Amino acid sequence: MAIKRNSKIEAGFSMSSMTDIVFLLLIFFLVTSTLVNPNALRLLLPKSTNQISSKAQISVSIKHYLPAGTFSYHINGSQSAIPFGEIEEQLRGLLQNSEDPTVSLYVDKSVPMEQVVQVMNIAKRNQYKIILATSPE
Question: C-alpha dihedral over 53, 55, 61, 62, to 10 degrees?
Fold first, then answer.
């Protein structure tokens, strides 16, 4: 006597779990890509054809306020300004354990070269590599 099964096997499958996973990955990458931008300040960078693909560990931004004739210094795109006298101390604290300390310098187009050289001197005293960020031509 043959035993018959009452359940039939279906050849299809549901894609709803796969679409849920893709949707969650999409949200994850959208959120993390907005956090990647290290420079949150609006700076008009000088233009250059030479671009370096090296990734800096720390970014220092110098913003020039033309009407007041003042400068503000920001580390890692922070909105809060740091006095010039504290930049060296903060860079030492942030780069003390890194093997190849690199600083990326984002400077507004209207900042005098004297301000840029002062930050470069800090990097030279502490033997940091420094990259001057430019926008492509």
Answer: -40
